[in-house]
Write a structure and sequence with these properties.
The chain has 13 helices and two strands, in the order αααααααααααββαα. With 372 residues, it is mostly helical.
Length: 372
């Protein structure tokens, strides 16, 4: 059953990676179907589920992989060394991706998606090494959520009034403006604010530990069908709790509010349970190969697609009276010219997904799996 469970997780992770590439690579950011946009601030769309689902998969993989390594004789010290090296490597790759092709050090963005993945992996993995008790792990997740809620709502730090979830006035931004400073933050929303900021890493670690809980269920010794019922029940409870909390505070992906964390963890648990039920209980495999391909080289797919997007934006080509990026030229002439602006933007994104599927499929066929 070990291989079966890992296959389920790879398919789940692959679906999130494929969706991540889809929503990150429209032909034009000005022409996107609404479900493929992030919510402007409060609220959520299907696109806002992608990143927390990936972190949930990271947590599940930690549970499964570390149990296997312990069975092969790895000591806690061995695991901690591996955690430190992998966390640092993923973080550095994220920094380099932010700086590509060249960014002045004084304006280099410190935070980002890969940096958040690194910190969540590192923190959750250390918790797994520290305790094998699922209740203690969930207690750590609950403590992280409680600490974040208190920091957001209460004036616990001199200079912070507390209670605001506005873009220009929230505790996440308040901390990041002081360290690392406005010059090192994402500014795409009109003001320096980083959606992967330092303080909002707290709830994302909790979401990753929710994935660890799912992984613990997947590798438990009792019959799989019963374990999946428990996982689905936990998903229903968390989803309902997240929706209820959303009536008390905003569901906000960029702030990664507690309501958003609980809601997305519940939905991720339901989807993972559905994948495991379909693949492992019912034995349905048809149509899963593309997701498996993305899931088996997840970080390569994300980093590679990000680099390709930057390269296409850097190359300039003539387009009538003006020079435009190669990305814009391809979108205009190969997609929007016949499908229209919005559908053409989707066609471009789908083409990017297909391109990466073809590349990753060849790597998968050759048994090449890039690990960081």
């Amino acid at each position: 059953m070990k291989t079966e469970r890992l296959l389920s997780l790879d398919v789940f992770r692959g679906l999130t990676v494929a969706l991540m590439i889809l929503v990150n690579n429209p032909g034009s950011w000005a022409h996107i179907h609404p479900p493929l946009r992030h919510a402007a601030w409060h609220g959520w769309t299907p696109t806002d589920l992608v990143f927390p689902f990936f972190l949930f998969a990271v947590g599940a993989a930690i549970s499964l992989a570390f149990a296997r390594r312990r069975a092969h004789g790895a000591t806690p010290a061995d695991l901690r060394r591996k955690i430190a090296v992998r966390t640092a490597a993923i973080f550095v790759v994220g920094l380099l991706l932010n700086g590509f092709p060249y960014t002045e050090p004084a304006h280099w963005r410190w935070w980002g998606v890969l940096q958040r993945i690194a910190l969540c992996y590192g923190a959750a993995a250390l918790v797994v090494v520290a305790t094998a008790d699922t209740r203690r792990r969930l207690a750590v997740a609950g403590a992280a959520l409680l600490a974040y809620e208190l920091l957001m709502r209460l004036p616990l730090v001199a200079g912070w009034g507390g209670g605001s979830f506005a873009l220009a006035d929230n505790f996440v931004r308040w901390v990041d403006l002081r360290w690392p400073g406005a010059a090192h933050l994402y500014a795409g929303a009109g003001v320096p604010f980083d959606p992967e900021g330092l303080v909002s890493t707290l709830p994302t670690v909790a979401g990753t530990l929710a994935g660890v809980f799912a992984g613990d269920l997947l590798r438990a010794p009792d019959p799989l069908a019963g374990r999946l019922r428990r996982l689905a029940l936990a998903g229903v409870v968390a989803t309902g709790t997240g929706l209820a909390l959303g009536r008390l505070e905003p569901v906000n992906k960029q702030l990664w509010t507690v309501s958003y964390t609980v809601l997305t963890s519940g939905l991720a648990a339901l989807l993972l349970a559905a994948c495991a039920w379909a693949l492992d209980v019912r034995g349905w495999r048809r149509g899963t190969a593309p997701a498996l391909v993305f899931g088996s080289n997840a970080l390569l797919a994300f980093v590679g697609s990000g680099l390709l997007a930057r390269v296409l934006a850097l190359i300039r080509v003539d387009d009538g009276d003006a020079a435009v990026s190669l990305r814009t030229w391809l979108y205009r002439h190969l997609c929007a010219a016949w499908a229209g602006p919005v559908n053409g933007s989707l066609v471009f994104a789908l083409g990017t997904v297909v391109l990466w599927w073809a590349l990753l499929r060849e790597l998968h066929r050759r048994g090449i799996f890039v690990r960081i």
